[in-house]
UniProtKB/TrEMBL annotation:
InterPro entries, A to Z: DNA-bd_dom_put_sf (IPR009061), MerR-type_HTH_dom (IPR000551), MerR_fam (IPR047057)
Protein name, entry field: MerR family transcriptional regulator
Presence of keyword Phosphoprotein: no
Keywords annotated in UniProt: DNA-binding
Pfam family, one: MerR_1
One of the record's GO molecular function terms: DNA binding
Gene3D superfamilies listed in its UniProt record: 1.10.1660.10
PROSITE patterns hit by this protein: HTH_MERR_2 (PS50937)
Superkingdom per UniProt: Bacteria
Amino acid sequence: MNEPAASTPSGAGRAQPLMSIGEVLAQLRVDFPDVTISKLRFLEAEGLVEPQRTAAGYRKYGWDDVARLRFVLTAQRDQYLPLRVIREQLAQWDASDEPPERSRPALVAVGPDGEVPGRAAAESARVRWDRSELLARSGLDSSTLGELERLGLLVSDPPGWYDDDALIIARAVAGLAAYGFQPRHLRGYRTAADREVGLFAQLVAPLARQSDPAARARAAETARELVSLSQQLHAALVRVGLRSTLGR
């Protein structure tokens, strides 16, 4: 539920108009359609943004706060940075008194629950492809895709739709195929991933099962951090393992 729009105080407030959490959500959803009020509250709880509060406890955001949120969301979406790294970078800006560059996105309408009209349909169209589209976008041939599905390396959602992760997998396999790898050579990736899922689920599931939206947001952030750390560990181990082969 959106909080009431905050009134603009005198003095500095006129130089930097203050916004409610619903207004900030509308600003951010232009570029980050998946962001929610729970997500903004979670980032505040993690100390990444510190909005002002009215006497009644309502949050009031300035453009600097919006700039910080944009930086955090961009770092997560485009660079998969864990929160600890993002927090360190923001601390550096704070220490140097050089906050992330402020920008003012176009205003959009926001519904009573924070939804942006027409956004759901756009999201759905953007992240779903049928079999022929997946093949065209990834460069795989139909027989290889069938083999990937048989081995459990790639799955579709009924009645045959593929999402972003399916496309990432398909493109990675197509790239490896150029070096002579076949789907059967990649079964170890599925086994290793399943082991990690089981391990990480033990940490994430208790939070995800709670009814509190903040707890579910924390579960999503924890999963994101674990995936990022796992990717870093895997890449480093492979690099170390190849050093002797490369003579380094």
